[in-house]
Amino acid sequence: MVNILTPQPTCGTLKYMKMDYPKELIRGLEAYGLDSKEANVYLAALELGPTTVLELSRRVNLPRTTLYPILERLCLHGVFQVGKRKKTTVYTPETPKRLSDQMSDRSRELEKALPSLELLQDTAEGGPGVTFYEGTDGFKRLWKQLLDSGVKDYRLITSGTGLLDYVKIPYLVERVIAERLKRGIRSRQLIPLNRESKRIVEHDPEELRESRFLPSDVTLPATVIIFADQVAFITTRRENTMILLASGDVAKTYETLFDLVWEKAEIPSTV
C-alpha cells in the first residue's frame, strides 16, 4: 500500500503523521544511489509536489536543520530542482521517468569510457600486485577470482586435503568443481601418492582434471595454484592466509617448474 498520511490539526496548523513507504520503492531508489533517508524525502516530495522545506519537514518528520543538507545533496545529484514561489524557496522532485533516463545516460557514458578505463587499469597492473585473503570467505573469493579470470586451464600443487581446512568436500564438489565444469576449465595437479589422493584421482575424468603423483614422502602443507599471470598460495588454516601474486614473470617461472616436475611425476594407473 502507498504511504498514507493523515492530517492532524495542531494549534491551527497541519501536522502530518508519516507511515513507512513500501520496501520495494526504497530499494529502487537505493539502486539509483540514494540512501534510505534521501529516498524517503524524495517519495514524500512526490506526494506533495513542489514544496517548501517546512512542508517537507512535517511530511518526513525531520527537523529542517537535518533536511537542508539532504536537499542540497539531492539537488546536486539532479533529484530535485530548486526555485522560488513568490519569496519562498520551493523544491520540486524530478519525475521517476527522469531519474530512470538519467541513470540510462550515466550507464551509456560509462560504457563509452570503459575501453579507456580498462586501458588505464592495464597500465596500473603492469607491475606485480599482491592481494591477501583470510579465512573461509577469503578462500571463496580467491576461487571466484580464478573462475572469473577467463582461463581455460590452471596448474595445481596440493596435498589433496589441505583445502579442506577452509571448506568441506560438498562445497568443493558442488560449488568450485561444478562451476569449473560449467565453464569448461580444465586442471592439472601434482599430488603426493597416498590412499586419499588415489581416491581423488579416481574422479579425474568426470572433473576435467589430469593428475600425476609425487612421491608419498613429499610434504605439501600449502597449496599452489598457477593460472593466467597469477600465482595463488593457500596456507594451512593454522596460518589462515592466502596470497594472490599477480606477476607474469613469477607465473611463468612456476609454470616452468611445474612442467619440469610433471614430466618426472608418476602417471596414475588406469587399471
UniProtKB/TrEMBL annotation:
InterPro entries tied to this protein: TrmB-like, Tscrpt_reg_TrmB_N, WH-like_DNA-bd_sf, WH_DNA-bd_sf
Domain Transcription regulator TrmB N-terminal: 29-94
Highest taxon of the lineage: Bacteria
PANTHER family linked: HTH-TYPE TRANSCRIPTIONAL REGULATOR TRMBL2 (PTHR34293:SF1)
Protein name: Transcription regulator TrmB N-terminal domain-containing protein
Source organism: Candidatus Uhrbacteria bacterium CG_4_9_14_3_um_filter_50_9
